[in-house]
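Sequence in, structure out.
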Amino acid sequence: LALFNTRFLRFCADADPRVRPLGYGVRAWARARGLAGNPSGGGPLLTNYALTLLVVFFLQTRSPPVLPSGLRLRDLAGPEDRAEVGGWDCSFPRDPSVLEPSGNTQSTGSLLAEFFSFFGGLELSRLLLSPREGRALPRPPPSALGGLRPGPLTLQDPFELSHNVAANVPPRAVSRFSRCCREAAKFCRGPEFRHKSRRGRPWGVLGLLQPGGTPEKDGGGFTIPLLLRPRGSSGGPGGFREVCGAVGFVLGHVLGCSCDPVGGTRGELGGSGASEELPRDPSDA
């Protein structure tokens, strides 16, 4: 099945010249936003395979489509292209020249901007993304999924229909993916995406590939919420002040971070000056 998955992605890449640059662009954007790559304690992230399959699925949903659905490819498969692995139909043409040229004439840049708008507007938790069907389906109840394990993002393998290729991605990562898509879509609608910046800032596609966020909003830092509630004004051994002092020492002196606690001052996170003004609710951070 892995071999047929690889052949399928190669077929899609050879079917239209826009597929490769669009796939590379989305993967580079996802790495820059911390949505893909090696997780650093935040749980599983989107894999390159899942991201590439999202690009394929997106191109299948355009009007007119850039790539045909898996069902259409199965119908175009000749006798020599028929294959079954583990009970799954893996039939599709080996030669992309059997496809008629797509009637979609959008540029790669236009498709990239549309990719972000498309996924930023989907309620992913309610949908089943099916490259086999080439469309998003209302997600049926678990009893009707045929062994497919649903998740915050349910992206069905094009051949092994009981496999959700994003099953291990946690809700927080999927939520960040949707949010980052909306931010990228907004950037693509602005002048920074279409015109060279007069201030020397990154613009166009490069503006999307800057680490952390869009250039205007990202300050290069991040927030660590402390799920702590102070008890009394003085605390005690192992109390709120001591915990904040320990966190401040580790961040500032051991890891060399620059700390600006939300709701306090720089000095309040370290040593005896730890303050009860640090955020008491995670939503405040």
